[in-house]
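All the exercises in this workshop are built on plain-text protein records. Sequence and backbone structure share a record, each on its own labelled line. The structure tokens are whole numbers drawn from a learned vocabulary of backbone shapes. The record below serves as our worked example for the rest of this section.
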Amino acid sequence: QVLIYKLLKCLQGRYSMKVFYTHAGCTLVALNPFQSIPDLYSLDVMKEYHYARQPQEFKPHIFIVAEEAYRNVRGQLEPVNQSLVVSGESGAGKTWTSRCLMKYYATVASVSSVVKSQDTVERIERRVLDSNPVMEAFGNACTLRNNNSSRFGKYIQLQLDRCQLLVGATVQTYLLEKTRVACQPANERNFHIFYQASEQTYEQRKEWKMSHDQSFVWLPNSEKTIEEDCFHETVKAMVHLGINAERQGEIFRILAGILQLGNVSFSSSADESQPCHLDAKSKNFLQRAAELLCVPAEELQTCLRVRTLKAGKQSVLKPCSQADCSVRRDCLAKVIYAQLFEWLVTFINNSVCADKSTWCNFIGILDVYGFECFQTNNLEQLCINYANEKLQQHFVAHYLRAQQEEYVSEGLQWSFVKYQDNQSCLDLLEGSPISVFSLLNEESRLNRASDAKTFRVRLEKELCDNANISWDKFSKVPHFTVAHYAGKVGYQIEGMAEKNKDPVPPELISLLQKSNNQLLHQIFKDNETESQIKKGPGKTTVVSKFKNSLETLMKILHSTTPHYTRCIKPNPECKPLTFKKEEVIIQLEACGIVETIHISAAGFPISLSQITTSAVQYSCSIIAGALFIYFLFMFCKRNKPLEYVTRFKLPAAVRSWLVRNRVRRWNRAAGVIQRHKHLPETFCHFVHQMIFSFLFSPQGSIKLHCQRSPLLYADRQPDLKSDVTGFNEILLEKTLVLGLETSAFLRIHDQTTYELYMYLLG
């Protein structure tokens, strides 16, 4: 609790001084300022961090994480490929952080002495950056928690050639929230692109059959203006990506047709054998939608009101109920928008992706939806929170667990730091043979309508032994509650199985395949689209598809060197420079920041790779003896106190610098040994024991720890010019400051001796 209080006090103090980034072990904590800070991300700041000899000596910044990953690629440190994992809850600033990372790499990786290559890189750089506003326009929306909330997940691979120049990129997307097209939660908005298209000139609106006095059911809160409603920026980016004016016209006519569909309403017929009725206004909206989608109006009306049933080789037409008609209308809008979004992602990849022969490494940027908990949560929130559970488990396995297990495996004295392991929650959601997902898939594959109460009873029967799931027996609405790492969330069961089925009536697909809109026709003519409408147990459910894509993502993350950035939302109202302790502390405890600091403070700051441990120890003993004799020789020669006295403090969280000048130090050390090779070996051993008798531990003693670090952090130089300040000063007690305490001073005469001593520390 003391550490949590100090951490909170540290973050609050830095936030009030407009310092929004803080290092916490292997993690960068980023607090959302909720206001524009242009000087913090300028081109000069990028160059300052990129050209710095030791960027870690600068103020914490997202550019430090970016530069560290970039230098790992340049240094070909295994694993060479890097992944920047940006996590946090909705509204914490993940999208902005990912945007800054892409801009940084597009800047620092676009420098070339070859003019032709530079032009190519600049063209690719512009296309990579222009993919952001397009994907945000089609995939982001204004929610209660965030004006620019990502309603899909994406993993962007920035492709680098052998010279570490940016030559291309690819985008992988995960689970677009397509239900938002036809159903927007209260006080929230549809996707940005609909609002951008609705605020155009008279000529454009006339072409898209959108009169100025017309309102749209699927365009709620249109009077609210936000920064993201920038149509010209979206169109400009589309042009740079290669989407010409003709193709843009086809896209916006499709979007306008979707909005017209939302205004179509049905009324029940007195005769159940007859289709539902359409009033005059709805017929007009339906006619406009058909013209914009370039399909026959009569066929569109029939597909929405009449179901085609297969009876052997014969087809039977059955009128739909009023509710079924609305469902089919929503389904048509959702499938059109989802396929349009997939086409857009594919087009962007074809535009910016480089040939496999031209790139050899990549830096991945992961930006996924944050943890969500609303008054009503369904399948979308279950999948989103499941993805966050997987990412949290990756962090736990990579650092919290792996770092401590390595200490134990090497026989070091170590007391395990307790942390929240969410493996039991993952077992509940995806475990085998019985889990929430497996039971949901079984329910979805049954050839009948799902009953929420029956499914709840089965969940309770099969999963009653798991402590991460609970039920409110007095609730009138069937639901279940899952204890996630970030808190408990209740999920409504009603409609979950139907969403998991994601049924698309075949007659709707057949209608869209006949469209005279070339883009719409192209999207739905593919065999892959036809396979999505298959019925029976072979159909892939939403959960299965999302789980498989997430497993592929996790394999990529496990094969790369990860870098963690935890975005924190300082207040729920998104007010600038407002810090609410209760809001922040919940996020810090949930994402494992506190445990990270515990392990970093108690851990070993210096790590030597286990290449040839015995050889390193033998070399250290010889060099230590040479160093002592050199000290003694200079002291006797001058017969006066040495001129320079330096006291070193090594904070536990500071990573050793070992890689940069290792060969240079060896050369200098070899010269000293050659000049004093006549010294007896016992003398060298005595000095070795004297210098290395300190034991590094949280109590103030020092020990040189030879180990194989999973973090591969070997380019951090301890600050020798000042005492521990800032984050370490606040977090670490006086007894936790690691270094040579009280009377432990080293007297250094010249630069050569200093280099030798730094080698011994390395």
In short: Residues 250 and 519 are 7 Å apart (CA to CA). The chain has 28 helices and 16 strands. Residues 391-500 form a domain with the Methane Monooxygenase Hydroxylase; Chain G, domain 1 fold (CATH 1.20.58.530).
